[in-house]
Amino acid sequence: MITCDDTYLNRLRELFARYGLLLEIVAPDAPLPGSYWGAPEAGLVGTTINVRRDTPLHSALHEVAHVVCMDAPRRARLHTDAGGEYAEEDAVCYMQIVLAQQLGVSAAQICADMDAWGYTFRLGSAQAWFARDAEDARTWLVDHGLLGESDAPTWRCRDADSPAPRKRV
After folding, report:
1. What domain count does the chain have?
2. Do 36 and 98 belong together in one domain?
3. Separation of first and last alpha carbons in the chain
4. Residue 51 and residue 95 in one domain
5. Residue 37: how many CB atoms within 10 A of its CB?
6. Are the C-beta atoms of 126 and 114 separated by less than 8 Å?
7. Sign (positive/negative) of CA torsion 59, 13, 145, 73?
């Protein structure tokens, strides 16, 4: 399982900053503020994503994808539970795979980590879903202006003309 260790921390910080989001690195063994599942899973507080060096990379990417995909009113009051509907959750999963590739992590590797964690998809694996059953998720991202036609992130949050403001809640 790939973690948010020193190999990825600077790249994560740069990726998050492209959206106007903050990465907060929490001390080892400390609780993670805003973690829905508890440590070592990433946490959300406002537009800050909290991680430790043992946080799975897929968890950090999933949480940033939630912030990107949610509407502005939810983003403004975000703490711990990202909420969202089924279609948005699928879009979040798709976006986390796209963002992993921006960090140089293959879709196959991030999908394997998602499967190891316990994500479930109709076709039995994250990789099968991404390759053969995720067109609705991709379309959702394109329709909301979050993904370009070539699967490139647009580096904007939903309902925002520019990146989300840097704000702590």
Report:
1. 2
2. no
3. 30
4. no
5. 12
6. yes
7. positive
C-alpha distances in angstroms, 93 versus 29, 121, 165, 167? 27, 10, 23, 24
Q: Which residues pair with 35 in a beta bridge?
A: 43
Where helices occur in the chain by DSSP H, the ranges are: 6-18, 57-69, 72-76, 86-102, 107-117, 126-132, 135-143
User: How confident is the model over 44-71, as pLDDT tens digits?
Assistant: 999 999 999 999 999 999 999 999 999 9
Instruction: Answer whether residue 155 is part of any domain.
Output: no
Q: Which two tokens stand for residue 61?
A: 């990417």
pTM of the model: 0.92
Of 17, 41, 76, the position where a domain reaches its end is 76
149: in domain: no
Q: Half-sphere exposure (CA, 13 Å, Cβ side) for 23?
A: 24
